[in-house]
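Q: What does the assembled structure look like for these inputs?
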Amino acid sequence: DAKTTQPTSMDCAEGRAANLPCNHSTISGNEYVYWYRQIHSQGPQYIIHGLKNNETNEMASLIITEDRKSSTLILPHATLRDTAVYYCIVRADYGGSQGNLIFGKGTKLSVKP
Amino acid sequence: NAGVMQNPRHLVRRRGQEARLRCSPMKGHSHVYWYRQLPEEGLKFMVYLQKENIIDESGMPKERFSAEFPKEGPSILRIQQVVRGDSAAYFCASSPYDTGIPQETQYFGPGTRLLVL
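A:
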């Protein structure tokens, strides 16, 4: 799987948009970008994923650059409960034998009042 | 729709004892994954199972660890003769196998915190 690079930590003011970047310059054509977050010792929570088009759901938006070498996760109105470690993961959707997610160190987002 | 369930949530064992961790996947999910998170570290993949089959165990320690996902009942991660270094959070995830759904979107349970004294 392609490796990703994320900033170690970021701060965001409550109510503002949180923009979390991720570089994945070696991504392959069949690899998706997934985002998960882990709130203090809880199980990782799936947020969103995409291939090449921008995606939006009730939690966040995912913006993928045209060359797919980087992406940004956007939390439009961050709350204190969004404080967590955010993981950007690149992997292919083979279906079948390629099961595991490879978690890096992620970005620790601190939302401040 | 209940999420992934894990039990126990906390488990304390003395060195040399056995630990059994259980995972019930989300309804309709037939794939189960186990991950381990050591203190202050990231999650590491251990094993991937389908019903009655181990698909990928490349992340499992060679000794003392085993996993199963029987036709009926939860998936079990078993650690024999536990040592202090086994103290960690163990997370289970499940995914569906449906051509209409991204097959590899994994949904995680709350984890089991194992403490070995």
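Chain A touches chain B through 27 residues (CB under 8 Å).
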